[in-house]
Predict the structure.
Amino acid sequence: MKVLIIGAKGQLGSELCRMFQEDCEVVAADLPELDITDAKGVEAIVSHCGPGLVINAAAYTDVEGAQNDRRGAFDVNETGARHVAASAKQAGAPVVYFSTDYVFFGAHDREVEPEDPIMPRGVYAESKAAGEEATRAANPNHFIVRTAWLYGPGGNNFVEKILRAAETQPEVTVVQDEVGCPTHTFDLAEATRALCRTTAYGTYHGVNRGCCSRYEFARKIFSLAGVTTPVMPCTMEEFPSQAPRPAFSALSTQRLTKACGYVMRPWQQALAHYMERRKQRI
């Protein structure tokens, strides 16, 4: 099968390319050659490619920056998503759209299911929720996969940021009351491939199993990396951000496993795998 992966240069897009190249013909597209806010450009590449599957891994992911760039965030995450999904439908191909745990802002004391009501707050979350709806409306054959706390090779992610901080600071302070699911791009790419081998279209959660606070995540990163810099806990109130962030957004992956049989491994195992990949520069 020929697979068109849009946003192929990002940490998730590049991982998807590596994964799908094992048994598919992959066509990779990204800026500056392709801007998904350009409807004609998207239609042209999809028409020329003739894919059996279109994966939209392009996104506006600057959570803080989005607060002052509403138009930019919605242009990519909603309008761009609509262009990709519509062009895929025109080509007779299903589409994959990646969303975020940030669409859930309500108070939760359990893992959130895909069918639970969303409550996006902040421009980034609102734009991704709008992208979900745009994708659903434009192409009935869609896989919407919500993920969280994503990290992978080449990305400017939490793992890399916290390790850089340890090199320059006597101690690192991390919030302990923001809880979520750290997710390795390797696992998400594998899960996406397994899901796309089915026709079980719909909305799913793709995260590594279990959850932790940012503080616990940082401690585990340092432990695996052999970093001795002290990690100090703080609250989100003590470490304010411009964009609102959900305090608890653990996602359930049961629907994903039921649909395609793929079981997401615990976040601790996935992180250990990533740290080994860093050593080998994979």
The chain has one domain: 2-280.
